[in-house]
């Protein structure tokens, strides 16, 4: 039933942006490997929703602490026991903790680098070793263009991931394309409302909140443009220009 079906592994797929990407790709015929760390209830609910909507497609949940290298080392192998191949890898999951340079402990630095850089590195490496063709899409942050140090370790992890995107695009070509989407004001942090997003958007050239739709449009553009690799698409209302 699932032979030759398009499939995508999405990290952090149980909630927020990852969930929206999973719903969007499933609607376009993809089977989804739903990664989660602590959100098992949400992952199961998403799996049930997708299976109900698209009974001819495969949806599986996979738990992994992306900050644990021992779990990461065999994660792609675990996923591929259930999927013949993976058409797409979306490195969406990240941790986002404040701290200027003087305030950044070794633990904070390691936590940001482990999840935001090492995990996409290891998953992309193993994806390329196990799939002859495909797409890797990394989710970045428009902060990669700024020297603001309010989220120093987080920003540095995303800067490094942007360079990794280009390095991997060169090494994995021509059969695996690697691109990234850099986000601006997209979703308010949990516990904060639309006013928070509006205040951020007011400082950008476009002066509108991005929301999910521009991310999905960028995702579609990457997946359908076979001549695109090593690129970073900024979905930030022009914030990177400031």
UniProtKB/TrEMBL annotation:
Question: Which key words tag this protein in UniProt?
Answer: Oxidoreductase
Q: Coiled-coil regions in this chain?
A: none
Transmembrane regions listed in the UniProt entry: none
Question: Cross-referenced InterPro entries, in alphabetical order?
Answer: NAD(P)-bd_dom_sf (IPR036291), SDR_fam (IPR002347)
Q: Which domain of life is it from?
A: Bacteria
One Pfam match: adh_short_C2
Q: Output the Gene Ontology terms for molecular function.
A: oxidoreductase activity
What is the similarity comment for this entry? Belongs to the short-chain dehydrogenases/reductases (SDR) family.
* Protein's name in the database: SDR family oxidoreductase
Q: Which organism is it from?
A: Ancylomarina longa
* Source organism phylogeny: Bacteria, Pseudomonadati, Bacteroidota, Bacteroidia, Marinilabiliales
């Amino acid at each position: 039933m699932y032979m030759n079906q398009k499939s995508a592994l999405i990290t952090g797929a149980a909630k927020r942006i990852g969930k929206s990407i999973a719903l969007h790709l499933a609607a376009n015929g993809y089977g989804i490997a739903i990664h989660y760390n602590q959100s098992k209830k949400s992952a199961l609910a998403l799996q049930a929703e997708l299976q109900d909507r698209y009974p001819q497609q495969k949806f599986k949940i996979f738990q992994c602490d992306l900050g644990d290298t021992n779990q990461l080392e065999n994660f792609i192998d675990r996923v591929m026991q259930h999927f013949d191949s993976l058409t797409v890898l979306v490195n969406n999951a990240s941790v986002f903790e404040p701290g200027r340079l003087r305030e950044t402990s070794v633990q904070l630095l390691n936590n940001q680098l482990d999840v935001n850089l090492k995990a996409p590195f290891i998953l992309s490496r193993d994806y390329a070793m196990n799939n002859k063709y495909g797409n890797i899409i990394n989710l970045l942050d428009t902060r990669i263009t700024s020297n603001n140090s309010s989220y120093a370790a987080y920003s540095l992890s995303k800067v490094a991931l942007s360079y990794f995107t280009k390095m991997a695009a060169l090494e994995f070509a021509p059969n695996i394309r690697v691109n990234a989407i850099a986000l601006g004001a997209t979703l308010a942090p949990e516990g904060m409302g639309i006013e928070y997003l509006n205040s951020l958007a007011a400082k950008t050239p476009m002066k509108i909140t991005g929301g999910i739709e521009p991310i999905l449009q960028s995702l579609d553009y990457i997946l359908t443009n076979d001549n695109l690799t090593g690129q970073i698409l900024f979905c930030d209302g022009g914030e990177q220009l400031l």
